[in-house]
# Entry
Amino acid sequence: MIQYSWLIPTLPALAYVLITIFTKRFKNISAAISILTMASCFALAVGILFELLKMDPASRSVTFGTTWLQIAPWQANVGVLIDPLSANMLLVVTFISLLVQIYSLGYMHDDERFSTYYSYLSLFTASMLLLVVSNNYLQIFVGWELVGLCSYLLIGFWYFKPEAANAAKKAFVVNRIGDMGFLMGVVTIGMVFQTFDFAQVKDLVAQGLANHTLASGYVAGIAILLFCGAVGKSAQFPLHVWLPDAMEGPTPVSALIHAATMVAAGVFMVARTYNLFSADPLSMTVVAYIGGFTAIFAASIALAQDDIKRILAYSTLSQLGYMIMSLGVGGYTSGMFHLTTHACFKALLFLGSGSVIHALHEQDIWKMGGLSKKMKITTITFAIGTLAIAGIPPFAGFFSKDAILDAVKDSTIWHHEILYYAAVFTAFLTAFYMFRLFFVVFTGEARDHHSFDHAHESPFTMCLPLVLLAGLSICVGWLNWPGVDAYSKFVYYGDLHLEGGASNFVQLLTQSWLSIVVAVAGITLSAMFYYWRIFSAEKMAVTFRPIYLLLKNKYYFDEFYGWIVKTFLFGLATILKWFDDEVVDDGMVDGSGWVARKMGGLLSLTQTGYVQNYALVVFGAVAVIFLLVSF
Amino acid sequence: MFSVLATILVPFAVSFCLFHSVAQGPNLLPVLSTFILAPFLAALLVMIAPEKFARWISLGAASFVLGLGVKLFLCYQTAVSGFQFVEEIPWLKNLGISYILGVDGMSTLMVLLVTCVYFAGALISWNISLRRKEYFVLFSLLVSGVAGAYESLDLFFFFLFYEFAVLPMYLLVGIWGTGRKEYAAMKLTVYLLAGSAFMLVGFLAIYFTSNVHTFDIRALSDLSATGLSVSFQNTWFPLLFVGFGVISALFPFHTWSPDGYGSAPTAASMLHAGVLKSLGGYSIIRVALPLMPDGAKHWLPYLAILALINMLYAAIVALKQTDFKYVIAYSSVSHCGTILFGICTLEAAGLNGAVIQTFSHGIVAAMTFALVGTVYGKAHTRELAKLGGLSKCMPVLGALFVAAAMANVGLPGLSGFVGEFLVFLGSYQSGFRGGFSIFQALFPIGVLAIVLTAIYYLRLVQMVFFGPVKDPHLNEEVKDGSFIEILPIAFLLIVSLLVGLYPKPFVDMSNLSIAPLIDHIGGFK
# Structure
């Protein structure tokens, strides 16, 4: 099966071409092509997983490829690398994409650019899969950039809305800033190691570090350059600003971006190039602290947001921060495990919010309420997703989040206790704001009766993915049931060592009492505010108004960046344009033109048009020549 | 539609089948001269034929030449390399001037580029109504000159063909242009002629100083025979570089470019940005580097700064333009900076990057100008403030423009990325070898271009195609591109995709010229 793995990115790319060229006019055929190719990719991914499981754990890595371009000494390949890491990602990406595509049948049913939408979805997944199966740094960059393009197209899918057009541009440009660092990292790797191949670079780094021909600080520098790309794509601080705005795209696209095909790329890339990151504590510390800071920073913003999708967006930022932090403190397995569980419950939450939006045509949570009476399936599945993200056992999020907290606690990184408490506090905030969202939207009384009366449960194509994902949001965590540890035995870096060490479930619960306590406390506090209404959130907002405004306006980062761009970039552009028009063009160019004209003017004085003048000149010249020659 | 397709396919098939590789014996016609003669004969034919045939003849000739270009690319023997299909006719023997044509890997790519843009340009000019006959005559003559310049291995004929290409451009801009067309035509021509004056002086200096007393580039490239001293090279290299640089819009001699393109008719902008402008960078690699390697090693690190200014300065100025076409023009200047920067690295990767970027920029700039021209023909304005939401009424053109913008931005999968990546790789490698650390210091600055380009192109897409429709009567009456309008743009997009998706044959082809050149020069030591 592994020899067919190259088909996984190829099939959706072909689907894109087919839909774009041939089936634009036939909605159902377009959707069928897209969904069928994705289903076959998922089947392939499952097949690959089983084939890997059959192999000896030490040799679970298959790679092959062909030359893409060649200039001595470089040979850039396009190839496939299948190992547990990529097999894990392939499953996540194809599965979530498949469900999102099925869900979109209902959600996008009335859109006039339905076929185009499906073609973009196919291309989006194809790019992500190209990145996932890559066996070299150049190809991962290629897939990376194509993912950026597709996010641009999908976020700006409703291009006639100015907000959508703006958000699409912002996503692409902010990502490009990170990509600039990534590109520099890739080029530096090419320069230092004369190859782009993951395996070769890994060997060369190991050799270089062993015989001291390569300074570990140098490797850290390269790793940090690559990490710039991850900061952009996984929306880490300070390049986080694009992700909340990306909500302007259709909601299934948000689910895709947040769960599988885009923001996971950054985490995956760090995991894929982990040998560079782990070479030096400096790069690990940078990664861990950026992740940890993003986690708590984004969670605090989520407290004060009113848009259902924005709350979820900030929760994604925060959870991505967890994953990045986990990788930074050495928790390779826990980071990837959280990526996997998060993909399930975040896709569920987004598709659930899409179901709500589909029913109400409204995104402000303060205009919702009491939806549990009208939308049973959506409510139950959403509740499962919320419990999972809050980290309540035995839902999926509990296992992965707890593994991360463990990894932080046990790490040897610089002042890891700061990170640990930040992570625990983030868990508290997460439980609080997620249940705030849940209580406001689904419980209590309807706030807007007009839209409430029209609300209805979503069609089957939308409910089916919700139910499937809800099932997974419960069960996926059990892969790492204490004592079983199936996931940890499959995806790991270096030598197998089981983290945590709990041997049964009860022991795990007692070991992780703190994270359970904070999650329950978060939920209780949230219920006091928004369910039982013992406390008033409005009064709190008034009392702590400056803090509330700060959080509500996302610490004014958008304004700050906007000001920088406007003042510095466009200021510089204004100056340079003036310089170009006035100095280079008018001054130099037309100036020399002026000199030429004046010279011509002087010379033209001799062109009098009188024959006698010319005759005089000719005579004079002859006389001068005669005199010169004679004497 | 079918007659158009027939006019394209039949001549294409004829020329494709007519010619064959040198290995299979001599061709019926001299291959390289046909690239020059076919457009020239087409021009003559258009002159005597009735006006209604003008566009058909031109399209037929363009398709014929395109078939030939593709065939040349396929028939170039990569195992042998060196100059192939050489034609040599002594002209003025005692002055050492001969009519020598020949192509190596790099010029094969350039000839292919010329034929692609010629073909697309002939299609995009389909609906020209003003003085159609004269237009197509000048258009074909221009191609004839450019093709000759790319194929010449004799400095004299190189110069002659170049001048031959510039003059039709003057008339094309001056007569069929828009806006301040007389001013733009004048400015453009004066600049290009000033550049060529530098060139001519440089050529003559080489001719009189060298011991071989010939204009033959092959003979002049043998440094031991020419005996050009280091001090001579150090004096004359920058002059030649600037002379060629003016053609490629080197800062601060770039202002002809926005004004010229702003006013030129669509096909003229395409040909100029696509192929005539590329001649500058090409000539540096073809003439200046092999003839004066020591001068190159001495000067290129400093000239790299000018190239960097080109890349970044033009990109920033593009941000504040208010005219659709001016943005594209500045973007073209910025991309030419990338080409020149690649040359300045004097590394295999950088120079190959420059060649691929030249090819890519030719295709992509032609595509972008074709789009701007088509959109202008429908919207009747190029002012960004008045445009907006055009994707609503022209979705296909909008999608193609997004593709063109992405090609300009250097998105992988399209041709722009390959060239840019190689240039950056070369620039870093150049610094790493320790020849001149300035590259390493400046490398991050060059990469800034990929962000700036993204900003101004996406801003442009947003202002023109996205958002709400600003001009109410740009809604119903405006139609999307017709088949004949879409065809050339789609064709160029496919070429760009071919290079972007599988660059190996193109890079291999370019490397056939670059690898020996690097051996010849030796790089910074």
